[in-house]
Amino acid sequence: MIKAVLFDLDGTLLDTNDLIYDSFCRAFKEVLDIELPKEEITLLYGKPLKTSLIKYTDNEDLLENLINSYRNYNKVYHDNMCRPFEGVKELLLALKERAIKIGIVTSKRKELAKRGLELGELIGYMDVIISPEDTIKHKPEGDPALKACEMLGVLPKEAIMVGDSPYDILCGKNAGCLTCGVEYTALQLSELIKIKPSYLIKKPLDLLELI
């Protein structure tokens, strides 16, 4: 029986796909003076920033500059490029009506994660928000999902992790949770399917059928 749903944030509940893409483009151009194809950039979605960017430089100063450039652009334009996907509010309300606990498990810093949830009028539905500040190990390790389950008072097998990237699904699997991929991902859907999530949904409200 599913007692809790753990959601990734960006690309799952909040449509910030254009913001993330623009933030990566700005960082690569500003710091390394390179332009990458969109297909390559979308493969970086859903990962901690350092994990995404370290492959492009082994210079610690340049890596730090890349991260800062991304974060600075992202913070400035965040509020204008952040909105819930259609059906998300209705989904969260229905989960609450069924007494299902709700958590966020995100690679986004807590300050900005809360800001996005507030902008989308979603924060009131959340029982816990797990961000990189809360665990030593991050996605794709299971620690963030395990931390969420611990704080929600549920067993991992009683929770389902929902996300748009392979790192989300691996995080849930490594924690012992059920997993659900979203087909409206901005990533290549084939990359998500390769990880073999327990379920796939075409739109947020489809999750209710699984619960």
Automatic annotation (TrEMBL):
Keywords: Hydrolase
Keyword hit for Phosphoprotein: no
Gene3D superfamilies in UniProt: HAD superfamily/HAD-like (3.40.50.1000), Putative phosphatase, domain 2 (1.10.150.240)
EC top class, as a word: hydrolase
Enzyme Commission number: 3.6.1.1
Record-linked InterPro entries: HAD-like_hydrolase_sf, HAD-like_sf, HAD-SF_hydro_IA, HAD_2, HAD_sf, PGP-like_dom2
GO molecular function: inorganic diphosphate phosphatase activity
Taxonomic superkingdom: Bacteria
Organism: Clostridium cibarium
Lineage: Bacteria, Bacillati, Bacillota, Clostridia, Eubacteriales
Record-linked Pfam families: HAD_2 (PF13419)
Protein name: Pyrophosphatase PpaX
